[in-house]
Amino acid sequence: DAGVIQSPRHEVTEMGQEVTLRCKPISGHNSLFWYRQTMMRGLELLIYFNNNVPIDDSGMPEDRFSAKMPNASFSTLKIQPSEPRDSAVYFCASRVGYGYTFGSGTRLTVV
Amino acid sequence: KNQVEQSPQSLIILEGKNCTLQCNYTVSPFSNLRWYKQDTGRGPVSLTIMTFSENTKSNGRYTATLDADTKQSSLHITASQLSDSASYICVVSADFGNEKLTFGTGTRLTIIP
User: What is the pLDDT of residue A16?
Assistant: First the structure.
């Protein structure tokens, strides 16, 4: 089991550019979560999916953020256009029952 | 508003010593409380999970306690090792039909030789 796989590990982009973060959950996990972590605010839930269906996107900061889960083995988080305040570490996690497994995160820097 | 507060914000101790990290929460309706360890540059990894009826749970040198009446939890680390240097995050789950996690901002623990 390779765990939750996120790509890229690091992303540096210029303000205004589109950024796409990718996540492959653990096979058999039926829930997928996207989190953002900053020093000031810690971990914050952006959106989560159950069985590929978005359930709660109330944490998505604004319309510049969007997430998709076209199938059980893949999800994307897109930011368009990106802004410097989006700089953070973005984590994907998948869950079955009570057990959450986090990926290693994508460190996003918007300059 | 559901909140989880952790103390201290950071802690430095000598290798081999014990330490205790604190977590206070105001989360309702309570479902469970988790402690996670997050190494630098990695995602959080679960150490323990406790439901309302559990007072203590151990995972090797890590022992978590829960007092659901006072809404407090602690994580005790025994005989610390250099590899224990990490952030420790307290996470409380509320049950609204769908589980919703509230994260603390963590305690940064540094073990020095």
Answer: 97
B43/A4 CB distance under 8 A: yes
Of B43, B46, B101, the CB nearest to A45: B101
Radius of gyration of chain A (CA): 13
Q: State both tokens at A82.
A: 């990106």
A102 interaction partners in chain B (CB closer than 8 Å)? 43-45
Euclidean distance between CA atoms B64 and B43, whole angstroms: 20
Higher pLDDT pick, A1 / A11: A11
Counting as low any pLDDT under 50, the low residues of chain B are none
Chain A positions in Cβ-Cβ contact with residue B101 (cut-off 8 Å): 45
Per-residue pLDDT, B1: 80
